[in-house]
Amino acid sequence: MPANDTKRANRSPNLLILFHEYTQARWLMALMAVSLVSGAYYYYFGPANWNSAQLALGAHLLVGSLSLPLFVAYVRNHLPWGLKASRPGPFRKLAWSLLLLFVFVLLSGLVNATPFFLYLFGIIWFPDFETFDRIATLHLASALALPLLVFGHLSLRARARLPEPSDAAEYLEQKILSPGETRV
Amino acid sequence: MNRKLKRHLLPLSIAALATSAAVAALHYLAPPPEDVSVAIDEVPYYKLPWNDDPFFPGNMKTADGKFIKPEKLPSAASCVKCHVEQFEEWAASLHSVSGRDAVYDKTIEYNEHFDGKTGEERIRFCEACHEPGEMAIGAVNKVKSVLPTDATTEGLTCVVCHAVTEAHPETGNGAFTIDLSGGRDHMHNALIMASPRDHARAFGARATKALITKSDFCGACHTEQYHPGNSKVQGVASVQTTYKEWKESWYAEQGVTCQDCHMNYDPVAFIDQLKQDKVERPGKYSHAFAGANYLLTETDLGSNIFFLRGGVLPGLTGERYVQILEKQKRLTHDFLRTAAEVEVRQAELKPGAEGRVQVAVKNVGAGHNLPTGVGDQKHMWLELVVEDAAGREVYHSGAFDEEKGRIAPGSVVWAERFIDRQGKRIMDHLTFNTARVDFIRPFIPAREEDVIDYAVALPKDAQGPFKVKARLWYRVAFQEFVVQILKTTLVIPPFLLAETELPVHTDREVASR
């Protein structure tokens, strides 16, 4: 087995973790797309056909709810090595903005969906309409901005990488291997 | 494009495209919500005796000119699940029973019978304001081919006000337009909780929202005009001018609307600050519609209150109804007491001779005339009593006979008169027979006063010092009306609006303020 292949084989448990994070990211992208399209459809075209609009809203709530734990898991995996692997500067700022915007979109959605979940448990509670409306407007605006930031983040990440050792596998190695232990 | 970007954009693009395709398919394949309207000619046997307007002689309209399917008119009982506070405020108000209260119901029957041929259709004039739901489904007709629903028995139910898009306060007689043509809630309640935007838009459409906070909205019904289509009046006679009275008042100049007082959570405090020329409009409005009908909140009447209010409203228990009526009763009483003040300005009393007492009745708190509304019934009178040193009543004007429910002849009474073609006064609100309307004594405009001079003849043996007592009374109906319409001897108690007392220390003293 060539030396390179041995190195890859030895890294397999680490790569599995990386692969896991990578899958999470792809799923998150997919859920984000579904949420965005269903939400935008409901918002802009709902009154044209309520029967389809309410299905779209239902899908939006379901997918948005699933996104939240997935987002938390993904950030938990991604943030530590991402911070180590990137150089400080505009990219970092963009990354933090993306994170904050994502958190805001999810939390604002969750806040506005709270009366829905409470209703399912037989509890009637809702904030005044003006509050809801402000949050909903911000939720929509930030959700529309989100893909742009994602695009920027993914486009710039290669340029923002630190020199060796900066790749994720290296980081994971450092994290998993005991101090002083090195791989050949 | 870098590799990572491509890899991440792929699921994003696939999901976006798949979802777009799915919603597009749904949009075109899902059946649209059912139409809420019914063409006029689809309601069997609906009679149009005068013209093509299905609501004539009432002035109400629907946006598409059609009737609304009864099942598409939501009852307030369906709103109570989430809007308990607003529902209970409204339920205790007069608006919730505008179509079902016994007094109105019997008056309608009476008028219907008077006009035997087209009575059932002519009462569309009354129903436009009192039961717009029933009007909107095409149920106000001789042949009842459309059955009433809960919503249609709830008078000015939630959907009526929250679907109005147009109002003509100068025209009145229910000159508003209900727009249910686009339908209302089509989503499951849980989803409305997640996104109330469209629910709010539906019940507070831009046109509705712009209108619902203005006095113009109220004026559509609080302006009533008689004309040959609804009475025997030649030309037009103004019967209720509450909107116009407000429009010409200080309150309109200051931008104080009907809602500011009548939908205020603390109308007494609000009116008190208005009395000091301060205008701080409320930020939140109540649905209690504080008003002047103290009879229909009188819980001391026991079960009679249920009779008078036409039973218990859908969505309420009898016990809860009484509880909220108790609250409304206090609100009504406090509210009424803000309206007027009486002042004995001068008293010149001489035993054995004719003296003089001057009393001013001031409209200090109402943003319209005092009284206002259905003026042939809602009336006000002044009671003046002079007592001598021994506490003996030596003069009495405006006495009320509690047994017979009548005011003594010669009293100072503020009331409107309906007069028939023979010149006879109509005491039982027989609108369809009214040929002329005038006043016994004109009502007192907002922030104005009416000064009454009494010639007071005291007996020779009357000994000073005297006490001059003035009381301003209000009553929602004349006894003749109660007997004729309700077929009962029940005496409607009067309500004391204001009172004052002036001691006159010696029998020759001229007391003045």
Describe what this molecule looks like in 3D.
The complex is a heterodimer of chains A (184) and B (513). Chain A contains six helices and no strands. Chain A is mainly alpha-helical and 184 residues long. Chain A has a single domain (3-176), classed as Fumarate Reductase Cytochrome B subunit (Up-down Bundle). In chain A, α3 runs antiparallel to α4 and α4 (90-120) packs antiparallel against α5 (129-156). The radius of gyration of chain A is 21 Å and the shape is elongated. Chain A starts with a helix and ends in an 8-residue tail after the last helix. By secondary structure, chain B is of the alpha+beta class. Chain B folds into two domains: 40-335, no CATH class; 340-512, Immunoglobulins (Immunoglobulin-like, Sandwich), CATH 2.60.40.10. Chain B is built from 19 helices and 21 strands. In chain B, strands 10, 11, 14, 19 and 20 form a five-stranded antiparallel β-sheet that branches. Chain B has a four-stranded antiparallel β-sheet with strand order 18-9-8-21, with no helix packed on it. In chain B, a hairpin with a 4-residue loop joins β12 (400-401) and β13 (406-407). The longest helix of chain B has 27 residues, at 3-29.
Concise account of the structure shown:
The complex is a heterodimer of chains A (about 180) and B (about 525). Chain A is mainly alpha-helical.
Cα(first) to Cα(last) distance of chain B is: 93 Å
Structural domain tally of chain A: 1
- Quaternary class: heterodimer
**What percent of the residues of chain B sit in helical stretches (DSSP H or I)?**
25-40%
Number of strands of chain A: 0
> Can you count the helices of chain B?
19
**What's the count of strands of chain B?**
21
The largest sheet of chain A, given as strand count, sense and whether it forms a barrel, is: none
CATH class of chain A: Mainly Alpha
* Global mean pLDDT of chain A: 80
Give the second-level CATH assignment, the architecture of chain A: Up-down Bundle
Poorly predicted segments of chain A: 1-13
Q: What percent strand of chain B?
A: 15-25%
Mean pLDDT of chain B: 92
Please tally the helical runs of chain A, counting DSSP H or I stretches of 4 or more residues: 6
Distance from N terminus to C terminus of chain A (CA atoms, Å) equals 14 Å
> Which class of secondary structure composition applies to the elements of chain A?
mainly alpha
For the biggest sheet of chain B, the summary is: 5 strands, antiparallel
The dominant shape of chain B is elongated
Considering DSSP H and I runs of 4 or more, what fraction of the residues of chain A is helical?
A: over 70%
